[in-house]
Amino acid sequence: DNSSEFIPKCRTCRRQAREQSGEAAHHEGLSSDEELTPTEVDEFQKSKDNVLEDSRKIFEDVHADFCDIRKILLKFQEWKEKFPDSYCDAYISFCLPKLLNPLIRVQLISWNPLEQNFTELEEMPWFRAIEEFSDAENASESK
Length: 143
Hints:
Strand content: under 5%
Largest sheet: none
Helix content: 55-70%
Number of helices: 6
């Protein structure tokens, strides 16, 4: 296997090329294999913008009661309060994650925890809505 010999030779060649060109932006320990060219950065940004634009259109023809997590959870809370036996028989606690998954995923498309000014998951509206629903559900079960 010559792959172990190939890696140091590639690094040596790249280091020599940087030294000859006078490129000082490289930091030792960082791989230049992971550096993106301006063209790649532009293509990535365009692709990302297209995905974000498409994601905004996903629920545009859906009634607000069925694409807002808080409103959906309120309907389930009403169901539980009015018809507790039916609610339990339907195993709603097992169904909610699958039901809410697409709604949450759409909201997380643009979330990037590596950005400096990212929103913590706990601060997102969908997280708070689920937390409030869970608190209300736990309170009603303790009664």
